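Internal tracking record. Fields below are filled automatically when a chain is submitted to the structure queue. Please do not edit lines marked as system-generated. If the sequence contains nonstandard residues, flag them in the REMARKS field before resubmitting.
Queue: standard
Priority: normal
Entity type: single polypeptide chain
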Amino acid sequence: MGEISKSDLERAREAARSIDLPGNKIRAIVSVLMLREGWDVRNVSIILGLRPFTSKSNILPEQAVGRGLRPMKEVGPDYVQILEIIGTPHFEEFVKQLEVEGVGVGYTTNPPPPGLQVFPVKIKTEYDIKIPILSPTHHREYTNIGVDILEGLKKNPLEIIISSTEKDKVKIELIDGITEYTVGEKFINYNLAIPILNDILINFTTRICKEARIEGQFSTIYPILKKYLSEYFFGQEVNLDNEVIRRALCDIKNSDHIIRVLSKRIGEKSVLKTHTQFSQDFISLLETDAFFWRRDYTECNKTVFNITPCYNGFEKHFALFLDQATDISAFAKLAEFYTHFSIEYINHRGAIAYYYPDFVAIQKTTNGKATHWVIETKGREFEDVALKDRRAHDWCSDATRLTGQEWKYLKINQVNYDKLTQKMTSMPGKNFDEFLMKLVIITDPGDFLDELFD
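SYSTEM-GENERATED OUTPUT FOLLOWS
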């Protein structure tokens, strides 16, 4: 271990801050101090414990695995998030201490299965699907970000009353674990050290940049945050160095509101819409690099891939339906980033995010033409779903206009699919067209079905 220069340290910190972003190319991080540094990251999926984990190290078991227990964002409960914990026998004994605290940890002496390799079968050229590469509809324009973006924001949005009384007391509520009724409450004194102002501002600025998915703009966001806190958030001009003010800023309810409001406003003011253009190039699924898949799968004929990777039973059943549908000539399960097709959109926080559709398919219609489908199989609905739907629909409209091929978007809610398949015990139709006709009858008008048959 050699000396680390200040420039190396700053690069490492920036890499750690941006590790969760989709465009980050780092796949593994080795750190002997991660447990002590309070590393704020959500995308940990494997923890390899190689430390001695002796009592002298003063490391708690929840610290050792806690970095991997934070749920990844933008991942719905349809997809099971798995944390793999691997280590020495001493590490296993160390982690078992969590069971004393009521956290069950499963163990196995067998290594996890390596998974199956998914790859395009080169001789299945008739099932290749070429997806047009369109330029992004949205881009960042940082020159639009300044303190003037705060104009119009509500002052004192949480109706905070600034008071120095009882500033060292906190209200504790005693809640029954079964009935969830409040059985008592008490104010207790606490003397937690309040961070200095600069540390608070640095923390907030970093979080805003992360939420808004903005890189390299710390010096731009910092003064905007400072002005918002000193002139807007409390409804009056305040001295941010005041201990009462700093204590209020450290309240999680207040800090979360600040991050949410500013990240959304910055996103709204910095994201500009542009005209979509066709690059005259395509993503050919036949050229997809091989990748390993450790979840469910099925075997299908009308796809270029050797197996069809699936996250759940819904996707698996729908893939089998596409394979047998008489009017579907080719389809593919896209397996998210492995196949490189994504559509950028503006999420509910005002940030540029990326949506990975579930399926693409080609349908041969009765007039002899081909309709290309971008298909989403949806279990539960979340706040970004409607935004993804609209953007995918717009992408298909642009692709149709720019390429001359017909592209359409379809979202299939599992509750409707279950009705048509008797909870996936039968197929929803002999062909895709019959399936669409049935789907129209039972689906809410807002799911773009009014445009499927234009």
